[in-house]
Specification:
The chain has a four-stranded parallel sheet with strand order 4-3-5-6. It is 24% helix and 18% strand. Strand 15 and strand 16 form a beta hairpin. It has eleven helices and 20 strands. Bound molecules: N-carbamoyl-L-aspartate. N-carbamoyl-L-aspartate binds next to helix 2 and helix 6.
C-alpha cells in the first residue's frame, strides 16, 4: 500500500522535519523577493505527475494551495469540487470513487464531511491519499502548516529551525475545540512534540472526550488541573496538557512536586479558531471568545504568535492584522511550500518519507466484525448507508481490562456492554471475562438487548476451568 497521510500520526516527527527541510529548500530557491514565505515560479520536479483534488466540502485555502503546490512542482491537477457534479450524488461509494480516480491521477487529496472518509479512501486507492479534512475528525496538512509556522517563529526568536524547538512551548488553543478538525490534529502533534497545550474553549465547544483520551493514552499526556497542581496555573486556565519526557517517568511523576509550571506565565502561541457553525445542530447561544489588540496587551501574551487556520469570522479582530505577532496570513502562505514538500515526498520524488512507515504512536489490537457493536458517532463513515455496503465496524482495543473500543475511522471510543462467541451464539453481559474468547470468535455488543436482537442467547453458567483460554462453551 502506498504511503498516505490521513492522520497527523501517519508521519513521525523526523519525517515531518524532513518534509519541513524540503519546504525550506523550496522557499530558499523559489521565494518571491521581499516575501520570503511565498513561492513563485515553477520547478520541474513533478512534471510526469497528476494530482486529483476531490472536495466534498467548502474550501478555499486547502484546495487552492494543494493545486498551486502541484502546479509549482511542475505537475498537473484534476479536480472535483462540487459534490452534486460527481457520481457521489448517484450513490457511488468512497471506495469505488478512489479506485477509479487512482487510475487517473498519481495522488489524491480528499475533503469529505464523513469522519474517517480519508481512511477509507487510503485503504482502497492504489495511490497516496492525503486527508484535507474529514468532518470534525482531523486535518493533518493544516497541522503541518501550523507546525511549520511555529518552527519559523521559533527560528525568528533565535531557537534552532527544527520541529524540536516546539518542545516546551505554551500553546493556547482557542475557540471551537469540539467541532474544529484543525485543532484535533494540532493537539496530537503538540503532545507528541512535548509542547504544553492550554485549551481555552468557547462554552459548549470543549475538546471531545475521545481527543482527551487519545492525548492521555497515545502520548501519555497528563492533564494538570487546579486540583493536582499546588501553584502555577493562572486563574483563567482550567487545565494544561503536559507530556513527561518518557512514558516510564509517569510512575515517578509526582505532579505536585514537579510542576511549578513557572513557564506558564508566558504564552508562546495562541491558536484561534472559528465557530464551526455548519457542524452545529442549533444556533450557538454562548459567548464566543475574540482576540483583539486589547486582549493582546496582557503581559502573558507579549511574545505570543497569533495563529489561525482561517477563514476567520469575529473571533480574530482586523485590528491585529499589522501586529508583528500575527502569523495567520504567513501561515496560509506556507501552505504552498509545505504541501509542495509533502506531495513531492509522497510521490517519491524526494526521500523525506521512509518506504515502510514507522508508527508514530503505539498500536493496539484490532477488533473487526459485522453484526455486533457499531461506532456511536453518526457522522462516522462506518455508519453511512452507502459505505456500510462494504465496511465492517472496526475498532482498536485501546484498553484490555474492561475493554474500551476506539473506532479505527473516527477515533470515538466506547465501552461494550456485552460480548459473545460466534460459534456458540451465546453472550455474556459481564465484561470481566471477555478475554476468555478467542479473538477470531469474539463479538462485542453495545448491551444485552443488542446481543439478543442479533440472535444471541445469554450464557447460563460461568465457564469451567478447562474452557479458559478457549471458546465459550454453553451446554
Ligand atoms: C479549516 C477547515 O476547513 O477545517 N480551514 C482550512 O482548511 N484552513 C478551518 C475552518 O474552516 O474553520
Amino acid at each position: 500500500m502506498p504511503r498516505s497521510v490521513v492522520s497527523i500520526d501517519d508521519l513521525t516527527s523526523d519525517e515531518m522535519e524532513a518534509v519541513f527541510q524540503l519546504a525550506d529548500r523550496f522557499l530558499a530557491e523559489m521565494a518571491t523577493p521581499d516575501r520570503p514565505y511565498r513561492v513563485q515560479g515553477i520547478a520541474k520536479i513533478a512534471n510526469q505527475s497528476i494530482l486529483a483534488t476531490l472536495f466534498f466540502e467548502a474550501s478555499t485555502r486547502t484546495r487552492l494551495s494543494f493545486e498551486s503546490a502541484m502546479l509549482r512542482l511542475g505537475g498537473q491537477c484534476i479536480s472535483a469540487s462540487d459534490p452534486s457534479q460527481t457520481s457521489a450524488s448517484k450513490g457511488e461509494t468512497i471506495a469505488d470513487m478512489v479506485r477509479v480516480v487512482g487510475n487517473y491521477a498519481d495522488a489524491i487529496v480528499i475533503r469529505h464531511p464523513l469522519e474517517g472518509a480519508a481512511r477509507v479512501a487510503a485503504e482502497y486507492a492504489a495511490v497516496p491519499v492525503i486527508n484535507a479534512g474529514d468532518g470534525s475528525h482531523e486535518h493533518p496538512t493544516q497541522t503541518l502548516c501550523d507546525l511549520y509556522t511555529l518552527r519559523a517563529a521559533q527560528a525568528e526568536k533565535g531557537r534552532p529551525r527544527s520541529i524540536h524547538s516546539i518542545k516546551d512551548l505554551n500553546v493556547v488553543v482557542w475557540g471551537d475545540l469540539r467541532h474544529g478538525r484543525t485543532v484535533h490534529s494540532l493537539v496530537y502533534a503538540l503532545a507528541r512534540l512535548k509542547a504544553r497545550i492550554i485549551p481555552r474553549a468557547a462554552p459548549g465547544c470543549e475538546l471531545p472526550e475521545h481527543v482527551g483520551s487519545r492525548l492521555k493514552r497515545d502520548y501519555h499526556c497528563i492533564p494538570l488541573t487546579k486540583e493536582n497542581v499546588d501553584d502555577g496555573l493562572p486563574p483563567d486556565v482550567d487545565v494544561v496538557y503536559m507530556t513527561p519526557e518518557e512514558p516510564h517517568q509517569l510512575a515517578l511523576f509526582d505532579i505536585r512536586m514537579q510542576t511549578q509550571l513557572k513557564g506558564l506565565k508566558t504564552v508562546d502561541a495562541l491558536y484561534s479558531t472559528r465557530l464551526q457553525l455548519e457542524r452545529l445542530a442549533t444556533n450557538y447561544a454562548g459567548e464566543y471568545p475574540a482576540v483583539d489588540s486589547e486582549f493582546l496587551k496582557q503581559k502573558r501574551y507579549r511574545e505570543a504568535n497569533v495563529m489561525h487556520p482561517l477563514p476567520r469570522v469575529d473571533e480574530l479582530s482586523y485590528d491585529i492584522d499589522e501586529d508583528k505577532r500575527s502569523m495567520y496570513f504567513k501561515q496560509a502562505a506556507y501552505g504552498v511550500p509545505v504541501r509542495m514538500a509533502l506531495i513531492a515526498s509522497l510521490l517519491e520524488l524526494h526521500p523525506a518519507l521512509a518506504a515502510s512507515p514507522v508508527a508514530a504512536t503505539g498500536r493496539y489490537p484490532e477488533y473487526r466484525r459485522a453484526g455486533g457493536i457499531e461506532c456511536t458517532n453518526d457522522r462516522c463513515v462506518s455508519r453511512a448507508a452507502n459505505e456500510r455496503r462494504y465496511l465492517a465496524p472496526r475498532f482498536w482495543i485501546v484498553q484490555s481490562g474492561p475493554p474500551i473500543l476506539r473506532c479505527v475511522y473516527c477515533d470515538v471510543e466506547q465501552q461494550p456492554g456485552a460480548y459473545g462467541a460466534v460459534p456458540t451464539n451465546k453472550f455474556v453481559a459481564d465484561l470481566a471475562t471477555w478475554q476468555e474468547v478467542n479473538s477470531e470468535d469474539l463479538i462485542f455488543f453495545a448491551g444485552a438487548a443488542e446481543a439478543a436482537k442479533a440472535g444471541y442467547e445469554p450464557r447460563k453458567r460461568k465457564p469451567r476451568k478447562k474452557d479458559v483460554g478457549g471458546e465459550l462453551v454453553a451446554k
